[in-house]
Design a protein that fits this description.
Blueprint (H helix, E strand, L loop, with lengths): L3 E6 L5 E2 L11 H4 L3 E9 L2 E2 L2 H15 L7 H9 L4 E9 L4 E6 L3 H6 L3 E7 L6 H4 L13 H12 L4 E5 L12 E6 L2 E4 L10 H6 L6 E2 L4 H6 L2 E6 L3 E8 L2 E2 L4 H13 L5
Parallel strand pairs: 7-8, 7-13, 10-11
Antiparallel strand pairs: 1-2, 1-6, 3-4, 3-5, 5-6, 9-10, 9-12, 12-13, 13-14
The structure holds pyridoxal-5'-phosphate.
């Protein structure tokens, strides 16, 4: 996340100076990671794919037992006013505080649109565990992201830009803040959501541009994929240039998808 430009409270859609504290010290969002959030792209003063994000936000809140008051739709639109290209984070804590933060797109995020290097990392769970044990909160976007952030730091310590998590039974799951797609035997494949990964809004949008099949993607499929990309709201479609040190080459299909995504995104408000 780049520099904060604007902070608005859900309560009365009031804009606060960006350095104003908004949470109490006993908010469970802070002390237990019990808050939900969404991160969106803002283009031409409007939040992209807002309805899709708000649907997932409501689902995450319900799974965490967090009351989600009305008003985030209007709050997102108000926060986005006048921003040409930015990120927007909506957060609702279990302590009952809702807020929106508009932020600059970080330079490394912009650079990632040109391609990234990725390493695979074990997540230590089987691909069917979270479907069998829903209390593990598969598919929920909560602020309990310490493991996600640690995975990114570890990837960077290994000299890569990002990571792809794999399961103990040898399947691809997701990246710490992105969805994985891979071109295998001429078909674009993405891991199914019953593995407990987050259902990506960028994936949903890209599926309107190209057929993408949700199907188990094994680690060996990934190793022989001719093209791979990581999809996420603010970075968009980031083609993978190398996986575990293996160069992937030009990625014509996914680079074309990235271009189409960027040009079509402003029409998906
Ligand atoms: C764990 C995880 N998977 C996938 C995604 C991609 O979701 P979206 O495309 O909606 O940004 C994210 C987004 O932050 C994420 O945190």
């Amino acid at each position: 996340m780049g520099a904060v430009r604007r902070v608005l409270l859900l309560d009365d859609a009031r804009e606060l100076p960006p350095d104003t504290p908004v949470l109490r010290a006993d908010d469970l969002g802070v002390v237990r990671g019990e808050a939900v959030f969404e991160t969106l792209r803002v283009l031409d003063g409007r939040p992209c794919l807002l309805a899709e994000h708000l649907t997932r936000f409501a689902h995450s809140a319900a799974r965490l037992g967090i009351d989600l008051p009305a008003g985030f739709d209007e709050l997102a639109h108000k926060a986005a006013i006048g921003a040409e290209d930015a990120g927007l984070r909506l957060t609702m804590t279990k302590g009952g505080v809702g807020f929106a933060v508009l932020f600059d797109v970080a330079p490394e995020t912009v650079a990632g649109r040109g391609g990234i290097s990725v390493v695979t990392l074990p997540l230590g769970i089987a691909s069917d565990l979270r479907a069998q044990q829903p209390w593990l909160l598969g598919g929920v976007k909560s602020t309990s992201y310490a493991v996600n952030m640690a995975a990114l730091r570890h990837a960077r310590a290994l000299g890569a830009d990002d990571a792809i998590w794999v399961s103990t039974d040898g399947y691809v799951l997701e990246a710490p803040t992105s969805t994985v797609i891979a071109l295998v035997d001429g078909q674009l494949v993405t891991p199914p959501v019953d593995t407990g990964i987050l259902p990506g809004t960028t994936l949903l949008a890209c599926s309107r541009l190209l057929p993408i099949t949700a199907a188990p993607l094994s680690v060996s499929d990934l190793a022989r994929a001719t093209e791979i990309a990581l999809l996420s709201s603010v970075r968009g479609v980031a083609p993978v240039l190398s996986l575990d040190g293996r160069p992937l080459g030009a990625s014509p299909v996914l680079t074309a998808l990235a271009t189409r995504f960027e040009t079509t995104l402003p029409t998906w408000m």
